[in-house]
Design a protein that fits this description.
27% strand, 2 domains, 31% helix, 208 residues, alpha/beta, binds adenosine-5'-triphosphate, Rossmann fold, four-stranded antiparallel β-sheet
């Protein structure tokens, strides 16, 4: 369970997040929508432990997330651009990442690439990937170790209509397996179908 309790953050004089309280129960999918700059990414960063908050608390599975001390565990994350090595192939990139924790095998990585529709492109260099292919690789990176939690910032960016559907189905499959999902989108239509609840952020405040 993810508990975001009265979280606020300012940078210089600007309020970025104001008194945000959201609970994501195990196996639920919660969406965040809002205009550019409304604070969606910052909230995901705070939940992951990648940015400091001024007040409030974030708890994940009974552990408090504190910037610089305790970051989120067992979680697949898409936040900003992952630094893929563009002169290596998609498969080689994921194998490097998989080698950090050594939880999964090369075959697991290949199966994940299949799930996101990148089998044919897996031996292509990432510099030759289209925007949509790079996005699929980011999704593969997030799901490949079968995490308990998925934190996904704009997972549908750069995907065409058909691809959005495919990735929605894939995320529903994970949700049905019990994965807890917190994700953002600037397009509510993309996440309505997936989410148990959708919250709207406006200038750092929850409006719904
Ligand atoms: N490092 C930073 N320094 C100063 N301000 C920042 C920084 N990072 C983000 N901001 C500001 O925080 C606010 C929220 O940004 P955030 O990236 O969370 O928005 P968002 O809702 O994810 O937007 P988008 O849909 O464009 O991704 C914006 O006003 C942004 O300018």
């Amino acid at each position: 369970m993810i508990e975001i309790k009265k979280v606020s953050k300012s940078i210089k004089e600007q309020t970025i997040l104001k008194n945000i309280t959201i609970t994501v129960k195990d196996g639920n999918c919660i969406g965040l929508v809002g205009h550019n700059g409304s604070g969606k990414t910052m909230l995901l960063k705070a939940v992951s432990g990648f940015t400091k908050i001024d007040s409030g608390e974030i708890w994940v599975d009974g552990k408090q997330i504190v910037f610089g001390k305790e970051y989120i565990k067992n979680t697949g994350i898409i936040l900003e651009q992952p630094p893929f090595i563009t002169y290596l192939t998609g498969l080689e990139n994921l194998l490097i990442l998989a080698n950090i924790q050594k939880k999964i095998t090369k075959e697991d990585v290949i199966q994940t690439l299949k799930k996101v529709g990148l089998s044919e492109a897996q031996n292509k260099k990432v510099r030759n990937y289209s925007l949509g292919m790079k996005q699929r690789l980011r999704i593969a990176q997030a799901i490949m170790e079968n995490p308990q939690i998925l934190i996904l910032d704009e997972p549908f960016n750069g995907l065409d209509k058909e691809s959005v559907k495919e990735i929605q189905e894939l995320l529903i499959e994970y949700k049905n397996k019990g994965t807890t999902i917190l994700l953002t989108s600037h397009d509510e239509r993309h996440i309505d179908y997936l989410c148990d609840q959708v919250y709207e952020l406006e200038r750092g405040e929850l409006v719904e």
